[in-house]
Amino acid sequence: AIDLLAENGGGTLFFPKGTYIISEPLIKKANVNLVGETMFTTTFEWIGNIPGVILDTSNQSLKGTLIENFSFTKASEVKENVTGILGGSKMTVYNSSLGSFKNLNFSNIDYGIRGNAEQNGVGIFDCCFENIFCSNCFRGIWLFGSGNTIVHLKIMSCSEGGLILDWLDEESYDGVHVIGGIFVRNKCDVLIPNTNGIRPCNFVGTWFEQSEDGIIHIPNQGTRVMNLTFRDCMLNTSTKKSAMFNVGNAKGTVCVDNCTIVQHIQEGRIDFINPVDHESKLVIRNAQGYKVDGTPFTINN
After folding, report:
1. What's phi and psi for 2, nearest 5 deg?
2. Global confidence as pTM
């Protein structure tokens, strides 16, 4: 059906509610929209015994198309890595942009959305993501591209990281605008694993809570963050072994602006760790602090 629509100039393929058993990737074609009934009633379930991709958009134009109202999961007996949606394109194709992803639920799979289909190409970029829910994944959203906007996401219980801000090559690395949403009970909420770093990224009105290793995890010293901003956010964590907000390895400027901070006072732990690099800085402005018992306290800007 996808092929037929593509051969006739495009259109919308509707999937009624139900569980669709997937053993090889669905290949999305240019000018084809894929629409389910709701994000919890139209489900793609991977049953293959090899590492798999449920919906493959790589090297297929996303321009002006929509993927909406689906759940992505894998059968309980599947032990191999499974990706919900794979994207990205070769440099010579360069068409993994200007698409819309809406009302998508990723649960119990390894990667929700992943943009590194081409190691020397480009990731998913200049796209809009709205109402994305990732739970019990290894990595939630991992785009490898700039210009993306994510509105109202919920990422919870991801075992390595919720949102991965990563570097693919000098042409394609992450720059994202996150509006609203919540991160809860992840290993870490925002993971920046590559020292080449990210383009400017910002979070507005986003809620962070109960991460195990803190809100930000930057494992490598000297990781370029350019300008990383958290504005009008709730910063909260239940971690007992890591700082809530550790940007010690960051190279650039990290700004926490007009945020509410819930501080868990524990022996030997500091909630904010400044960059080690002497030319980098952590700026905290207009912050309101509360202890877990509700007692307010002052945060030095």
Report:
1. -60, -45
2. 0.95
